[in-house]
Amino acid sequence: MTITAQSLWLIPALPLLAAGIGALTPRNGRGLASGAAIGAMILSFIVSCLALSTALADPAAHLAYNFSWFDLGTSTLRLGFLLDPLTAFMCVMVTFVGTLIFVFSLGYMKEDANFKQFFCFLSLFAAAMLGLLVANSLLLLFICWELVGLASYLLIGFWFHKPSAAAAAKKAFITTRIGDLGLLLGLLWLYHSTGSSLFFDGGNGCLESGMISSLVGQSVCGGLALSTAIGLLIFCGAVGKSGQFPLHVWLPDAMEGPTPVSALIHAATMVAAGVFLVARVYPLMEADKVLAAVPVHALTVVAFIGAITALMGALIACAQNDIKRVLAFSTVSQLGYMMLALGVGSWTAAIFHLLTHAFFKALLFLGAGSVIHAAHHEQDIRSLGGLSRKMKVTFITFSIGTMALVGVPFLFSGGWSKEAILHAAHGWPTSPIPFFAALAGVVLTAFYNTRLVSETFFGKPRSHASEHAHENPAVMTVPLVILAACAMLLSLLAWPTPWLQHQLEPTALLEEEGGATLLLISVLLIAIGAGVSWFFYGRKLRLTAEAADPLQSAAPGVFAALANRLGFDELYAATVGQLNTAVAIVADVFDRYILDGAIRLLAGLGEMTGMVNRSVDEDGLNGGFDTVSESLRGTGFRYSHAQTGRPQGYLRTIAVAFTVLVLLFLLGGSR
Amino acid sequence: MNHLPILSLLVFTPWIGALVLGTLRKLSPGTARWLGLLFSLSTLALGFVALSSFSAANPGMQLVEDLPWITALNVHYRLGLDGLSLVLVLLTGLIAPMALLASWRVERSPRQFNALFLVLQGAALGVFLALNFVHWFVFWELSLIPAFFLLKIWGGPGAARAAYQFVIYTIGGSAFMLLGFAALYAATGSFDFQVLATMAADGSLTTKLAGLGHFWPQAIFLGVLLGLAVKVPLYPFHTWLPPAYAEAPTGLSMFLTGVMSKMGVHGFLRILWPIFPAQLHAAATPLLWLALGGVVLGAFAALRQTDMKRMVAYSSINHLSYCLLALFALAAGSTSPTAGIEAVSAFNGIALQMFNHGLSAAALFFCVGVLEDRSGGKRSLADFGGVRTAMPVFAGLCGIALFSSLGLPGLNGFVGEFLLFRGIFGLTPWAAAIATLGLLATALFLLTFWQRVFHGPQGSGVAKFRDLSGWEIVTLVPAIALMFVLGVYPQLLVQLFNPLFTAWSAHLP
Q1: CA-CA to A309 of 20 to 30 Å: which in A378, A462, B34, B394?
Q2: Alpha-carbon distance B477 to B196, whole Å?
Q3: ipTM
């Protein structure tokens, strides 16, 4: 059964309907709200699968359906839906992972008073995210992009009575909005230059060859091609949303949201939207590669930002003690890998890693959620411990997740996708730096994951909470098992034949040359990272929650810097934050004292004139005005004489001046 | 005139209501309230009558009423309706009853309150529909008198000073405008906007003004500009606004920001743009900077306010400055070859923004009013906290109004702002880039407001706050519903004025 691009609207509309039902359900309508949300996701998943089968029938085609939104001048502003393998794969992933996380939330949020609101917001998120994926217009994509940000804001701040959650929600919204302003300017510029915000429109879309070549042909300030400038502005949006350096600071704080939210939004789907965006506008991003004499290529910037982020995220993750923050920084790092892949030209590796990452990172977050739920909201790995026997399913599935994240090859999906990225980075002619950053990231990833697992699951329970933890009910463990199976089975897509690569980009096959050597190197690096970590953490297991971290004892300065997230938050507070406050103070003080002062001075002068004229005024126009005032005087207000003099005086002056002027000009005109 | 004078009915029905309320001294407060609401709703009803006989495809003035008035000065009483004024009439029809509903619990003489309010409403409608300067100016000035008394008598503790400042500042600006038009009349012998615009378009106005001397064309322009700039307000002529909006009773704040602030922008489009194109073009760059000042500094000043009403007031300055920014960008860039489509975007954006801002700012003032009501008159950000737990329905509706004001896609505010930015970017890209700072600061202060009032631990007494009453929901819900409708289907409004602006853009001066 095939599906047309026109009916793609169903995919976001179903969760939107569920969100509407959730919003209008009374507070105690828990079953209706959650049932509608999960049912809608399952239906969307089915439609997405149909869309995938349609898209794979002709992977090179971009099936578009465009419609007019409103009149603009003599034409209309159009939006549209797009069906191609990228959209279809993403939709299937989001609806599948989403369904599992929704089910998991049934258990995780069971005791929350705002249970139904939670499902309403989750459905709203799903609708916006899916809308973003099916958009065939940068404008429609931007609309959904902002709505995704809203849902993220609402869900990070879901426990809004906690000041930290409320603050984190605002930080996330504002930080991503900084990037979004770049995206908005990119959108405006693209729209202005091409006259369309549609991606594909029978040859007139802004991603089609005609428009692209015209964009490359024009140059703007600094010798940049127009396509580079627009591409970099659009990339700003991706930097914000995908937690890339230097706008990554919101993502770790976003962990204040309930853990299923972290799994769905801040690991599997929304944060990957930035990667998706760059992948979507890839023809624009790579257009400038035909030019040699430009200061910078758009994709080079993407590659370096990705490399910095990948390395930085992995480094900081090594010194975090909150189980969710370790995972948050690992997400930052993995998103960096995806950007790096896009930057070095391997579109397929990036999307492959996006898909595999979604499964294993959702698995890890849900596993963390399972631990947190069992341990009565204890999130500090130093206070956990000894959970491997108490929570067997969680332990096994979580370990599978970490192995996929570390990139253990053969059995685990993450291994293949990461290998593809390393391979692409190795072959990048511009610079070897991203490649080495990626290799260093592999070591660090193995290090912090080994630390995470051994601290959380091994040794003795180090708190009352972990002492009494026990495995969660099936509603929570079954999604874990399914996701763990996916984290392994997805590797079949890449091995033994790179099937996915055929499907995503039928023209470019994975270069196999040198693959084996690289594979060997990365296995070696993983072994080094895990070994060093074992040396610190596994050899002598932590005994008490208060005991110093072995790495901290070995290198206190480095550990402190990393634990403090390299000081980015403080740096921003001291610079951007201070500047912001300063501008606000200046604007306010300027208004209150300087502008208002000038007005008072003028008014004072006017009052002096008024005093002189007062005796003349007293009997004239005042009489009539005072009658009106008189009737209101009974209400208890008193007017001082000087005050009542002012408005009438002005009115009178105006009337007199007007008459005089009209007479003067009339006389003048008649001459 | 062979048809019903709908436009006169629109303007004068509220005044008839005011007369009725003013003369029937023995009315009970309840009857006075209902009567006031009924007369106020007449605008919406007559607005729909006008809409039904309005042809959007015709860019000219429709339903024109033309009567000789002051023959000695060649003044005709002329009213007319086009897409722009129709939208503003509908906005007035929506905001005015909403403001009266919000004032339902005014205890001090509801009869006088409603009578003054209806005078204000009629005057605003007169401004939107008048085609001749003389009665346009009468309506324009007349709107100040009821606003002054409403503010002074029913306002907060600082109302007296705010009221005087408001009136004197505005009249001060208007005086220059009046002088400007007097001079214009002396040169041309006409007060009619359309006649003057035609003269401006064919160049005869320049010749005639030149006859007055070199100084006059600029001076007349500046005078008219000043009068309009104070009203919108254009930075830095805005300092009267925050105290006036803050001290006004809730219903008046809603009407001031929802409708009266549009009088100024309407004047810019109806008077300054068609009659003074050359002067506007020449002054465009400094004016762009002033509008940017309103966009950026207005938003940043809002960030510093602890009084919620002052904060919403500053956000109004910020929002309306986008309209002026677009108009000045049009004046600056109208000579560029691709200006047509950018101009249509900018014009449509201005009209949409006016309507949308009316909705969202009035709704926000209403929400602040609810908080004042519950807390016994407090309106500092520090006085609240955790209101969302106590008042979930209110939090939801206020949140929607807030995100509408913030320009979130899916709600009405976004479409207008997108079109504005599309136009501004196409005409003066640098101004669009700077203006994005305003978008950021807007998000920052609105979310700060939201966080401090609704989130976090509950402030003292908040636990006892009652959620919205049915009456309050009825007041707020129409605006909230329209925010969704216009966010998803802006065509509903755009179709009314797009042909008009397409015609304007085809003949850029």
Answers
A1: A378
A2: 43
A3: 0.91
